[in-house]
Amino acid sequence: MANPSGNQRRSEASLYIDGAFVSGLGAPVDVENPSDGTIFATVQGASAAQVESAIHAAWQARQGGLWSGRPAADRAADLSRMIAWFADNKDVIEDLLVAEAGVVRASLVRAGQLDAAIQHATDLIELFLTLPEIEDNPLPLRDRFKEVSAIQSLRRYESVGVVAAISAYNFPFVISMWKTISALIAGNSVVLRPSPLAPLSSLVFGEAAHTANLPAGVFNVIVESGAEGAVLLGTDPRVDMVSFTGSTKVGQQVMVQAAATMKRLQLELGGKSAQIFLPDATALASTAGNRACVPHSGQVCVAGTRIFVPQDEKEAIMAAIAQSLAGVVIGPADHPATTMGPLINGTAVRRCEAFVADALASGARLICGGRRPPNLDHGHYFEPTILDLPDCANVAAREEIFGPIACVIGYRDIDHAIEMANDTPYGLSGHVFGKDLSRAIEVACRLRTGSVNVNGSALSAFASGGGQRLSGVGRERGIEGLRIYQELKCITVVS
């Protein structure tokens, strides 16, 4: 695969359907480099008929049992060859991530986008192999023995079937990895459909699967310019499950599409997570803006974009946050001095501009940022922005912005902080900082969110993540994120 540098456009047969590389017959997908706004690659997208062919291939593979019928250890061996291909081609994948998603090459985000993805793939397989295929149901003795009969009740975990994996543009490689490896190790067939905004780092999964010699149809990857194929994946009765990461609005559409055939769903959607700094940990709050805005330019669904601090220290904390952000170097993702790169496209920048304008019109106060950097004429950039809000009523505290914008809100006491943190329709993640760990954990337990990080965070394949309410259903990674790709069957045996 060529190194996607400069303004060179790339066009090749990148779709992978039924064990073969094919050229798309649909509309072309132009891939933009967000660092400079140029189109550096073009992929011929899949037609509706080709999406249907991918679904049929996955369904046929499922019907034949060539994959689901294999022992898990054999599937693991094949998938390990896929992972080895990723490891051998890290430089190529890194170039793709930098060019198509604006991942800053010199930052820790690169490690999370690439190195962690490959390690998580191995870890997910390792974790799955520890899970029993069959478990005993805990029947009491009175139900196990009836007169002259003995009753045994078992739980058996089986693959769901055909999984449609629809990934997002912000972390395209790692999200595709989580979904693909989890579904495949559980015995499912997969159709992967990456975001058309950043498809290249997911299209390489076809090369990895081909190198690993996965049976034809077990894994397929398509890309399209529109949403016709995604709708087909959500409605076709041969698809048994949809795993989707993206916005809440689109996730709601996926739920509606899947309803008619009662598909299994795993949805990781939007977030409006809180960072709560307890009174004994306000010294840590100066870097809250960096955590919310700088990693991947705030395009992180779990980012703590609502910062809650004691009201009597709010002004000093906001000044410290602004000072901390003053050293951020905004620029092209490939530049060695860059610490914060671009947003994905011009639409994302305009969205940030509109949110800042609406927030200020509704009573917010601008502490820093709030505009495109004046020294960057090309590309899609927005300054890390901190807003001072009197409460949670402002639009900047209500809606997911998905950009480098965070708001600071003062609280009277801990109960007030928790009340405001929970005053949101979202519930994806949360952050609590406190020297008194008992108190910090108590606050964490009271937050209505799928995950909470106390005094820091760590992303592990062994711990699941997922949302509540408008942040989604189901879990990704961990035991729960593997079991969701399996159906549970109870078997009763009388002897």
Automatic annotation (TrEMBL):
InterPro entries: Ald_DH/histidinol_DH, Ald_DH_C, Ald_DH_CS_CYS, Ald_DH_CS_GLU, Ald_DH_N, Aldehyde_DH_dom. Keywords: Oxidoreductase. Residues 28-490 form the Aldehyde dehydrogenase domain. PROSITE patterns: ALDEHYDE_DEHYDR_CYS (PS00070), ALDEHYDE_DEHYDR_GLU (PS00687). It comes from the Bacteria. One of its GO terms (molecular function) is aldehyde dehydrogenase (NAD+) activity. It catalyses: an aldehyde + NAD(+) + H2O = a carboxylate + NADH + 2 H(+). This is aldehyde dehydrogenase (NAD(+)). Belongs to the aldehyde dehydrogenase family. The active site is at E268. Its EC number is 1.2.1.3.
